[in-house]
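Supplementary Methods, section 5.1.

A reviewer requested that the exact input to the structure prediction be made available. We therefore reproduce it here, unchanged from the version used in the analyses.
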Amino acid sequence: MAIHGEPLTAGSAPAQADVLCVFIHGRTQSPEDMIEQIVGRLAVPGVSFCLPRATGNTWYASRATDALTETTRGELKASLDYLDGLVGALRKAGGAHKPLLIGGFSQGACLSLEYAMAYGPWNGAMVNLTGCRVGQSQDERSTRDLDGMPVYLTGSDQDPWIPVSAFAEASEALGRARARLRCELFPGRPHQASDMEVEALEAMLRDLAEGSRPFRRVAA
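The structure derived from this sequence is encoded token-by-token as follows.
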């Protein structure tokens, strides 16, 4: 089983940060791509970023919407174990009391969702930019009570990797898991993080850094 690489770090040092963030790249991407495409577009002080790095730039070989095989289950478990180790190290360095946002884009969003279903909830939030559950509805998959943890899930009707049906299934799964859920489907949006999605991620990080829980504020 592949052992994944050293993560990239950015932002504040964990011990000085107000909030910790693990953000996971997609298939064929890298942590550097996430800096360019998402993290570098954020303007939130006091965040310590840890950006995991997949061997071969892939967390598992199959498509997220394929039926689970023993090979995919093994690859997924290895990636989740690696991610859990990074989360533990970041919390140890920064302090277990600090809020933690875990998220990702595309395959990274799928991996973060599976992490929540295996290890959640935690003190903080989750962001899944163009993500879904890995596998199909008939597959045996982990589920957790997320106990009101804030979750932001996005998709597009034009996405080549995550169809609307998979986005809808993920929404239902998160609802059944009792997440405090915000879902947005962006018609016509290509396979990338839009300005609105980055702004939503920024607002969630800002809320956590200020000691507020995302989605608590209600517009007048």
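Strands lie at 5-11, 19-24, 47-53, 100-105, 124-129, 150-155, 180-185. These observations are discussed further in the main text.
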